[in-house]
Specification:
single chain, alpha/beta, Rossmann fold, 2 domains, 6-stranded parallel β-sheet, 17 helices
Length: about 400
């Protein structure tokens, strides 16, 4: 690594969650294609490495996500120290922090001091909470690559340059006919329900029992109901098995078959997150949930500044998906909503129409290509005005 370090220009990616690993990988792949001579390094994960980045340290495992708060802070601070030392040896021309503003903002201060251009991949959700931190973002970015269509306008109002590049959960190739051909291994029964308990250990621990209780009550009302828990990966699958010990009749589990499971089901109950956009990509009916305690629920009422919490509703600027985010009650209200979809197809059709309209806002966006091009233009010194323009 030292043979190519000090003299060759480098691009640095820093990501601290599995979602950040997934966001960065397609753009790294396109950067490697467009600028093969530029070395790309990353504090990140396996997808970034597969895309062509030299992985300096693995920072996005689910094991790390399951650490307690104190251990997480210590781990992030250790990475900060490593990056500070690393920057003394490498000539970084651009830093792409991915999500995780709390972890990435201190690194931005280091790379700014080192003279690097800073291009945020994913707008920190200051529009939902923490708007007072916009000044910090303004000082520590040259451009924000926005994943949601409303974000450049919000940033522009605060004199921060942003460009909407689409979202990889939506702006991707998806062969629905091929997916349906792969349904032969899925359970039989009707109606069909998918449960998405989250991709992080703490989400699963908080929400799994709520989702399973909703399934059992729905099953008592619909004896033919069949359900799938969709585990994001093998680590999450092991956690689910430990938590449940024994699966109720009619409930099955698959690991890592998200798109096939979505194609299989009639409706999903999903923990709030990117999976709701994957469901939207197939215009699939859903209910969004996030179980929390009373104190967190009260805190959300004070801190959160958006009328909606679920990504499809935030994008649509109205409730097209029933959301229980945050939720402090039991399964009954969720069950009642799902039951209405089962009993009246009009409810599902209306939601699917709303999702189709939502998808139109992402039309003609090419997430990876646009993101890579904007990174290279920023490196070359192009200035971007603050405002809603999406022109690359």
């Amino acid at each position: 690594m030292t043979s190519t370090g000090p003299n060759k220009p480098a691009i640095l990616f820093t990501a601290f969650e599995p979602s950040g690993d997934a966001l960065a990988a397609p753009i790294i792949e396109r950067l490697k294609a467009r600028a093969p001579d530029v070395k790309i390094y990353a504090w990140g994960g396996p997808l970034m490495e597969q895309a062509g980045a030299t992985l300096v340290e693995h920072t996005v495992s689910n094991a790390a996500m399951g650490l307690g708060a104190i251990k997480k802070i210590r781990a992030v601070r250790r990475h900060h120290g490593e990056i500070r030392r690393w920057l003394k040896q490498y000539r970084v021309i651009a830093h792409i922090p991915v999500d995780s503003p709390a972890a990435n903002f201190p690194i931005c201060a280091m790379t700014r001091k080192a003279g690097a251009k800073i291009i945020h991949l994913g707008c920190p959700q200051l529009w939902a909470w923490g708007g007072w931190r916009a000044g910090k973002l303004r000082k520590r970015t040259d451009l924000v690559l926005c994943l949601l269509p409303h974000e450049p306008t919000w940033l522009g109002e605060r004199d921060i340059p942003g460009r909407f590049i689409g979202h990889p959960a939506i702006n991707r190739e998806l062969d629905l006919k091929e997916l349906k051909k792969n349904l032969h291994g899925m359970p039989h029964g009707a109606p069909r329900l998918c449960l998405f308990p989250g991709s992080r250990p703490q989400e699963v621990r908080k929400n799994l029992r709520l989702l399973v209780n909703a399934f059992m009550e729905l099953r008592s009302r619909n004896s033919g109901l069949t359900a799938l828990i969709v585990a994001a990966d093998a680590d999450i699958a092991r956690l689910i098995r430990r938590k449940l010990k024994e699966f109720p009749s009619g409930l099955n589990m698959v690991t890592g078959q998200r798109d096939i499971a979505i194609a299989w089901c009639d409706i999903a109950i999903a923990v709030s997150g990117t999976v709701t956009l994957h469901l939207a990509r197939q215009c699939k009916s859903m209910v969004g949930v996030y179980k929390t305690d009373l104190l967190s629920w009260l805190g959300s009422k004070v801190l959160l500044r958006t009328p909606f919490r679920l990504l499809p509703n935030i994008i649509a600027e109205k409730e097209i998906v029933p959301e229980f985010v945050p939720h402090i009650g039991g399964a009954r209200p969720i069950v009642n909503v799902v039951s209405r979809v089962f009993s009246d197809s009009k409810n599902a059709a209306e939601q699917q129409q709303g999702l189709a309209l939502l998808l139109s806002r992402f039309a003609n966006k090419h997430y990876a290509d646009e993101g890579a091009l904007l990174v290279l233009k920023t490196i070359k010194g192009k200035k971007f005005d603050a405002g809603p323009s999406a022109t690359a």
